[in-house]
């Protein structure tokens, strides 16, 4: 369940509706259950990946949180590439900057909190972005 957001495309149960997935993901990230996802809560989640605390999560740290997914499979690489590239550079690291930018993507009205309505708007886009990365990786090079 740890990897719910970062690997949302593969982690969620197929039996759930998109709305259920969304509500579950929101509830998971809203650690203190006050109805808002705060930066501190995003950081806490990020820190479960960034186990050595250097503000950089590499593919190894990322996939260490996944079960049943090969480290270099499209299903692992796709979400990694998506989050890695949020700051506009693919440097094989999901950095604190990527997370900051992910959070500002979610906080549409800029009040430093993400409510369910904002999450409802942004989460499907994140999922679509990840899906696109996975499809991209599955397409043979040179096509
Ligand atoms: Ca909260
Ligand atoms: Ca990066
Ligand atoms: Ca907000």
From TrEMBL:
Q: Which UniProt keywords apply?
A: Calcium, Signal
Tell me the ranges covered by the EF-hand domain, including all copies. Answer: 17-52
Single Gene Ontology MF annotation: calcium ion binding
Q: Which InterPro entries match?
A: EF-hand-dom_pair, EF_Hand_1_Ca_BS, EF_hand_dom
Tell me if Kinase is a UniProt keyword of this record.
no
Where is the secretion signal located?
1-15
Which Gene3D superfamilies does this one have?
EF-hand (1.10.238.10)
Instruction: From the Swiss-Prot or TrEMBL record, give the protein name.
Output: EF-hand domain-containing protein
Question: What is the native source organism of this protein?
Answer: Littorina saxatilis
């Amino acid at each position: 369940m740890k990897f719910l957001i970062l690997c949302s495309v593969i982690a969620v149960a197929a039996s759930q509706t998109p709305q259920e997935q969304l509500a579950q993901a929101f509830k998971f990230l809203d650690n203190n259950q006050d109805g808002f996802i705060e930066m501190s809560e995003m950081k806490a989640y990020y820190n479960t990946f960034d186990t050595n605390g250097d503000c950089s999560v590499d593919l190894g740290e990322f996939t260490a949180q996944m079960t049943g997914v090969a480290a270099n499979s499209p299903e692992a690489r796709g979400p990694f590439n998506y989050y890695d590239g949020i700051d506009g550079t693919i440097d094989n690291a999901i950095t604190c900057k990527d997370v900051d930018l992910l959070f500002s993507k979610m906080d549409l009205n800029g009040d430093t909190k993400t409510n369910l309505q904002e999450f409802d708007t942004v989460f499907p886009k994140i999922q679509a972005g990840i899906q696109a990365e996975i499809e991209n990786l599955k397409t043979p090079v040179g096509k």
